[in-house]
């Protein structure tokens, strides 16, 4: 039945017909509700740059406000950009401090933005994923001592008067450098995930002939008969595989790893022989620049189990004739399900800058509902680009509408059930003080979900219709602490329950007060 209604939705999308938003559509208990928080060029944050204490205080206040507003909108995961262009918005041993933070590349900040973001996200019960650009350097020359250390890994191509520099993905040293960066973040910070965006090879500056900066590496290292395009895809695949393998050894593999590729893949039929559904059969009529131009092969990452989630950038509307959102969302979800991984599509809400209207908001809501319709592994999700349209001045009113219309009940980030190291957890020592302070004993390094169930609702009726525990409408909070202060209204007439919610995303049995 679910697939039947999904088909109706996608056919309607192809035809440019839309169903009205229904208040009866239930919010799932498990759902990624992410937001990209951009630091490059200060797009989302920070609004001012500098290394002084006063600038730092302003930046911290702005960041806190953004995160609080995201939380109020119903967001449960923040994708915080910490490496925009071979730089760092954290204390890095490998790359210079970002000029987007301090105004000058290499000038140290007087605080650690990643630490601050994690602390505030966790205080609000949200996950924090460190967003890394894996290869981009930009148009600059080496300007700091740390740049000089890595410049032999860079390659630059020139088109006319323009240049673009990236780390050369063909080099073992590049992949080791990338792994070192991710390992340092995963080890030194209490992050919940690491996510890459879609900057791999740049199609405008990377020809497939002797003009290319990596031509000599291709000639020296390619297998017999291997095209340059296949060789480059293999380089990217090795980098993704190396990072995933490394992260599996850190903190028992609890850190999610995801990649956000371009929104179209499989249009050239290259995956048809592997049983992957044909993209044109989903109503998408386009070329596959991802596979053919930037040498990105996301279906391979899913097939080989090299990512925990994929977040394709489906930046088209539901009524787009060539790239309908519905068809793309359904295809990506089907492929992710085929290989047992999660799909959390990225959606652009940048149109709010020019058209901040309820009709425009409804387009985003439709897309989120389509993600829910097409997710068949109880793991829907959406990651909205970007934070300023939810929590900033560019989308006034949208965050409130998002919470009221589509994220009304809280949601937990979907569990990674393919992880094998999960073990049973239980809340013990649960107590409530006269002042309303709940306390309990820590269960490993779990997070916790606090519920308040009216006394006239029995246990059976309090269960989710999806058979995934207590219904999310009773959630008061997700907390990374072992205590929580109950709001006064819930101190009488409610039964309180606390569940462990581990870092793999699995919720365990409740303990009732």
Q: Which stretches are poorly predicted, pLDDT < 50 over at least 5 residues? A: 1-25
Average predicted confidence as pLDDT: 92
Q: Helix segment count?
A: 14
Cα shape: globular
Quick one: how many beta strands?
Answer: 19
Percent helix range: 25-40%
Beta-strand percentage? 15-25%
Radius of gyration (Å): 23 Å
Tell me the span between the first and last alpha carbons: 39 Å
Structural class: alpha/beta
Strand order of the largest sheet: 10-9-8-7-3-2-1-12-11
Profile the largest sheet.
9 strands, parallel
Report on the architecture of this protein.
This protein is α/β, with parallel strands linked by helices and 513 residues long. The protein has 14 helices and 19 strands. The strands form 4 sheets. The chain has a 9-stranded parallel beta sheet.
Produce a short descriptive summary.
The protein contains 14 helices and 19 strands.
Features:
single chain, 513 residues, alpha/beta, 9-stranded parallel sheet, 4-stranded antiparallel sheet, 30% helix
Give the SSE map:
Elements: H1 2-14, E1 32-37, H2 53-73, E2 77-83, H3 99-102, H4 113-123, E3 127-132, E4 136-138, H5 145-150, E5 154-159, E6 162-167, H6 172-188, E7 193-196, H7 215-221, H8 228-247, E8 256-259, H9 289-293, H10 298-303, E9 309-310, H11 325-338, E10 342-343, E11 346-348, H12 358-374, E12 381-385, H13 388-391, H14 398-405, E13 428-432, E14 437-441, E15 447-454, E16 475-479, E17 483-485, E18 494-501, E19 511-512
Parallel strand pairs: 1-2, 1-12, 2-3, 3-7, 7-8, 8-9, 9-10, 11-12
Antiparallel strand pairs: 4-6, 5-6, 13-14, 14-17, 15-16, 15-18, 18-19
Helix pairs in contact: 1-11, 2-4, 2-14, 6-8, 11-12
